[in-house]
Specification:
The complex is a heterodimer of chains A (427) and B (168).
Chain A: H1 12-21, E1 31-35, E2 38-42, H2 45-56, E3 67-70, H3 80-95, E4 101-102, H4 110-116, E5 125-128, E6 142-145, H5 148-157, E7 159-163, E8 167-173, H6 182-193, E9 202-206, H7 208-211, H8 215-223, E10 232-234, H9 239-245, E11 266-271, E12 278-280, E13 288-290, E14 301-305, H10 306-309, H11 312-322, E15 332-336, H12 340-348, H13 351-358, E16 360-362, E17 383-386, E18 402-405, H14 408-417
Parallel strand pairs in A: 2-3, 2-5, 3-4, 5-6, 8-9, 8-11, 9-10, 14-15, 14-17, 15-16, 17-18
Antiparallel strand pairs in A: 1-7, 12-13
Helix pairs in contact in A: 2-5, 6-8, 11-13, 11-14
Chain B: E1 2-9, H1 16-19, H2 30-34, H3 45-48, E2 54-57, H4 69-76, E3 81-84, H5 89-98, E4 102-104, H6 106-111, E5 117-121, E6 126-129, E7 134-137, H7 143-151, H8 154-167
Parallel strand pairs in B: 1-2, 2-3, 3-4
Antiparallel strand pairs in B: 1-5, 5-6, 6-7
The structure holds iron/sulfur cluster (SF4).
């Protein structure tokens, strides 16, 4: 990683891309063919990819160990068609002897599951047929979403092409206010730059506030890079990353960091001491407001979970707010842990009991309500506060329903109050 | 090649949930998906869209999920091409991969209106608004994308390459 006299400085994103392109250096705008460490598909995108893969005319996948297929969106199977889709993926996995196919029982939401299972690590290059594949940037990996055809091509070749993005640096300095976490920082940033504010760009998150953030908080941030149009979100690995990946990662990994004189397209500087818990109003993640300015918004449902906020820290925070309290009579609370291990741990810590005692429903891991798939669909005119990542029109059900995005503490407090509320109103 | 059709106009940030809502993603059958195309943005669209029609929209078209079902639905609905101010990254990539012609032109996207007759010269990227008598130039397509188009989509491109590797 030494930056010699003649070497151009590079960002962490550029370094990972260069390493996987077999080059000394890459520059933004350059088109590179890269080797991938892992490629991912789910029960919606993999069936389309499998159809395309079969057209290529190769007998085998490039590497059985480097393909992960996760049935998470419509599972446990919502209907016959969903069941057929999962069957297609299961049969493909059996035929090619893929060890990393995850179905109900072992599965989790893909972006919670793969890091937990040690299938992605720092310095990796990962592509996945799911837009939130950018989540793994929290480990210091380059990861980005593609479509099914790219998944098919990569399963055959082990390679893909990428344009080296310019990088935008987001510096978060200062000390976090109570109840503020990674979710709020990313919502705030998206509010500041807009849903296409980082279109085609790498988003690099740095600063003292990021250094102090748990990995769960970092996952929430990188997860939502795509909500600003970003190609990837990334955080340089540090001791917190090292503690997480040690003994967990199944492949050797490598820590990259940006050179001090690396070139950025833009630098944003945020003082986190000024950031309150955020709420993104319908129908775009950029419509953010501090929770204190949300006004009186009555709600019908609260959803806590997803690949953004379905991890241990999120459940602990939500349970902390709900402990000894009751969900408002007008509200349905649905909690869906990100993975089976998170579910188990929450069970051991008594969090599941807290949710159920409060009047909430706890689901097995699934994407379910996050994408309006099943397990919590909204009727016309209904409103939900959700810890998920998208509040597009109709995202959680009826096109006339509304989704408000928040962190788990705000979601839990809103469940108790029956309207959008900050946690300090409750705790 | 020239594409010619009547314009359906949409705004900024048309997301993939608007193009094809997730509730229909339990199938990947193009015909079935086409029946729900743009439903949440304009409920009349699936029934009224005619072969050759053109979708025009503002910035960040196709933002949101990676579902290839979105360009597939648009293509299967008979839409000849999409003109937008800008495209979200994954949608852009997917459209080329499956062979849905898309053109980036903020000027054309801003000017065209619902019902305008528009023609597009695919080779030169020239967009002509026949109703208004105006022409625009779309942003050039990157050379690598041109190779994919010439091969007939990414899968044919890869299949060709794999064959060459095997015979080497
Ligand atoms: S939890 Fe939601 S955003 Fe995450 S992968 Fe599932 S559907 Fe997509």
């Amino acid at each position: 990683m030494q930056n010699g006299v003649n070497q151009m400085p590079m960002t962490i994103t550029e370094k990972i891309l260069a390493a996987h392109a077999g080059k000394e250096r890459v520059v933004p705008g350059e088109l590179v063919s890269v080797r991938v460490d892992l490629v991912l598909g789910n029960d919606i995108t993999a069936p389309v990819a499998i159809k395309e893969f079969n057209k290529i005319g190769v007998k085998d996948v490039f590497d059985r160990e480097r393909i992960a297929l996760v049935a998470d969106h419509f599972v446990p199977n919502r209907d016959i068609k969903s069941a057929e889709q999962v069957k297609t993926v299961k049969e493909f996995s059996r035929k090619h002897g893929l060890p990393h196919f995850f179905d109900v029982g072992q599965m989790g939401i893909e972006h919670c599951l793969l890091p937990e299972q040690g299938l992605v690590g720092p310095g990796d290059l990962v592509i996945g047929a799911d837009s939130h594949t950018c989540t793994y940037g929290a480990l210091g990996a380059f990861s980005t979403g593609v479509g099914s055809t790219d998944l098919a091509a990569t399963m055959a070749t082990g390679e893909t092409w990428l344009k080296v993005p310019e990088t935008i640096k987001f510096e978060f300095e200062g000390t976090l206010k109570p109840w503020v976490g990674g979710k709020d920082l990313i919502l705030y940033a998206i509010g500041a730059i807009g849903v296409d504010g980082a279109l085609y760009k790498a988003m690099e998150f740095t600063g003292a506030a990021i250094a102090g953030l748990s990995l769960d908080g970092r996952f929430s941030m990188c997860n939502m890079a795509v909500e600003a149009g970003g190609k990837n979100g990334i955080i340089a690995p540090d001791e917190i990353t090292a503690a997480y990946v040690e003994g967990r990662c199944r492949r050797p990994y490598q820590f990259y960091r940006s050179d001090p004189d690396a070139v950025y397209e833009k630098v944003y500087h945020f003082d986190v001491a000024l950031i309150e818990p955020q709420v993104a109003f319908p129908h775009l993640p950029e419509n953010t407001r501090p929770v204190s300015e949300a006004g009186n918004v009555a709600i019908d449902q609260v959803v806590i979970g997803s690949c953004t906020n379905g991890r241990m820290e999120d459940l602990r925070i939500a349970a902390g707010v709900l402990q000894g309290r009751k969900v408002h009579k007008n509200v349905r609370l649905i909690v869906f842990p990100g993975t089976r291990e998170i579910y188990l741990q929450a069970l051991k810590e008594g969090l599941i009991e807290t949710f159920v005692t409060a009047g909430g429903a706890v689901s097995t891991p699934t994407c379910g309500p996050c994408l309006g798939g099943h397990m919590g669909i909204l009727a016309g005119g209904e409103r939900a506060v959700a810890t998920t990542n998208r509040n597009f029109k109709g995202r959680m059900g009826h096109p006339e329903s509304e989704v408000y995005l928040s962190n788990p503490a705000v979601a839990a407090a809103s469940a108790v109050m029956g309207r959008i509320a900050g946690p300090e109103e409750v705790v | 090649m020239e594409l010619k059709g009547t314009v359906w106009k949409f705004g900024d940030d048309v997301d993939t949930d608007a193009i094809i809502p997730a509730r229909y993603l339990n199938t990947s059958d193009p015909k079935e998906l086409a029946g729900y195309c743009m439903e949440d943005a304009d409920p009349a669209f699936p029934a009224r869209v005619r072969p050759g029609d053109i979708i025009a929209a503002g910035k960040n078209f196709g933002c949101g999920s990676s579902r290839e079902h979105a360009p597939i639905a648009i293509k299967a609905a008979g839409v000849s091409c999409v003109i937008a101010g800008s495209f979200a990254r994954i949608f852009y990539r997917n459209a080329f991969n499956i062979g849905l012609p898309i053109f980036e032109s903020p000027e054309a996207a801003a000017d065209v209106e619902l019902g305008d007759e528009v023609s597009v010269d695919v080779n030169t990227g020239t967009i002509t608004n026949l109703s208004k008598g105006k022409t625009y130039r779309a942003n050039p397509v990157p050379p690598f994308m041109q190779q994919i188009i010439a091969a007939g989509g990414l899968i044919s491109y890869i299949a060709e390459r794999m064959k060459r590797q095997c015979t080497k």
